[in-house]
Amino acid sequence: MKNNKIYIQRFGIPIERKSKHWCRTILLIIFLLGLLCALTIGVQNFIQRSIEKLAVTNDLNATWIGSLASYWGGIIGGIISGALTVVGVVWTIKYYRDSDAIKSRIEHMPFLMVEVNDYTDKKTDDSITGGVKIYEINSKAINNGTLEEKILYYRIRLRNIGQGFANTLVIYTGKNFGGIAYNELIQVNDSGEFCFEIHASKNMSGDEINFGVCYIDCMTNEYTQSYKIQWKSQKVNDIKLENGYPNFICQTHAIGKS
């Protein structure tokens, strides 16, 4: 059976969770340390070859040669320790900056919880379909080639139980790459509603639909959140709801910058 997962895209480009490129940072540090070690070995070999050419005939020359080695050793050691200190400071600053950004996002992050208000099998039932946008979506069974189908209308509510408002942008139903416009501001403890025109199989047990919502918060952080509605039996009201966790995409516009 094929997977009916909704693949969310923005401007035709798939949206995926960003991963931290720790490997690149570690490889860069290893490269810099290797470069410093190679430089150290090169300078040491140069000093050693130069010393071998000198004739140590008295205590004055011996003292001078020993001081030269200590001098270069101090310089090379200082370069290595200084470089490591700079890397450590930069890494520490980046760590605290990222931690502050994550903390700020959590303090203002919305969370849209899906609820099903009511359902009908008639599009003319204004109590379900009236006053809200209607989005067409197929069930997993229909997508996998089930010929028999019935059309149901479910009034869906997205309740914001997060920390800040959600400026919703689009709803992803799998009908197109960029999603379908759903421009509605949902305040904390408030909700937004729409209606799904669901094409399901006559034997609905096990059928499911997947959809997603894209929104931004008050700090212009962009999120996507995925949902699943599954029928546990042939009863149209016997459903299971699954809420995905907000997936941070990027900050669309830095506050205070043009």
Could you tell me how far the N terminus lies from the C terminus, measured between alpha carbons in angstroms?
49 Å
* Tertiary shape: elongated
Report the mean per-residue pLDDT as an integer.
Answer: 79
What proportion of the residues form beta strands (DSSP E)?
25-35%
Q: What is the number of strand segments? A: 12
Low-confidence stretches: none
Count of DSSP-assigned helices = 4
Structure, described:
- With 258 residues, this protein is an alpha+beta fold.
- It folds into two domains: 22-107, no CATH class; 110-251, no CATH class.
- The protein is 35% helix and 32% strand.
- It has four helices and twelve strands.
- The chain has helices at residues 22-53, 59-108, 126-129, 140-143; strands spanning 9-10, 13-14, 112-120, 134-138, 150-160, 166-172, 180-186, 191-200, 208-216, 221-231, 239-243, 247-251.
- The strands form three sheets. Strands 6, 7, 9, 10, 11 and 12 form a six-stranded antiparallel sheet that branches.
- A hairpin with a 2-residue loop joins strand 1 (9-10) and strand 2.
- Helix 1 (22-53) packs antiparallel against helix 2 (59-108).
- The mean pLDDT is 79.
Keywords for this structure?
about 260 residues, alpha+beta, six-stranded antiparallel beta sheet, four-stranded mixed beta sheet, 4 helices, elongated
